[in-house]
């Protein structure tokens, strides 16, 4: 019952996880046997590119409790799959523990 209640904490967590799973299913780059590359984006950032050509996805995570600045390369720019926000190449701030899943704009 609490999972069906969108206002409850359990419902919010459940719906957010369901949305993440839905996004992963939409992109072949998240397949378990797809090639990936760990990217160097600084000491407190973990970044990985799941690359399947046109369906490449770059996942960037700030592992620190501090905001950090990251440089988004032209081949990583596009749309953040988690927010729908367009992401241009260049310098961007990434909040504490923030995550971005970047894919080329369709």
How would you describe the overall organization of this protein?
- This protein is α+β, with helices and mostly antiparallel strands and 106 residues long.
- The protein has one helix at residues 9-26, and strands at residues 36-39, 45-50, 57-62, 68-72, 78-80, 86-87, 90-94, 99-103.
- The strands form 2 sheets. The protein has a 6-stranded antiparallel sheet with strand order 1-2-3-8-5-6, with no helix packed on it. Strands 4-7 form a two-stranded antiparallel ribbon.
- The chain is globular and about 45 Å long.
- The model has no long low-confidence stretch (mean pLDDT 90).
Report a brief summary of the structure.
The protein has 106 residues and is of the alpha+beta class.
Strand order of the largest sheet: 1-2-3-8-5-6
Secondary structure: helix percent: 10-25%
Profile the largest sheet: 6 strands, antiparallel
**Which runs of at least 5 residues are low in confidence (pLDDT < 50)?**
none
- Gyration radius, to the nearest Å? 15 Å
Distance between the termini: 37 Å
Classification by helices and strands: alpha+beta
If helices are DSSP runs of H or I spanning 4 or more residues, what is the number of helices?
Answer: 1
Mean pLDDT: 90
- What is the total tally of β strands? 8
Keyword list:
106 residues; six-stranded antiparallel β-sheet; 8 strands; 17% helix; globular
Topology:
Elements: H1 9-26, E1 36-39, E2 45-50, E3 57-62, E4 68-72, E5 78-80, E6 86-87, E7 90-94, E8 99-103
Antiparallel strand pairs: 1-2, 2-3, 3-8, 4-7, 5-6, 5-8
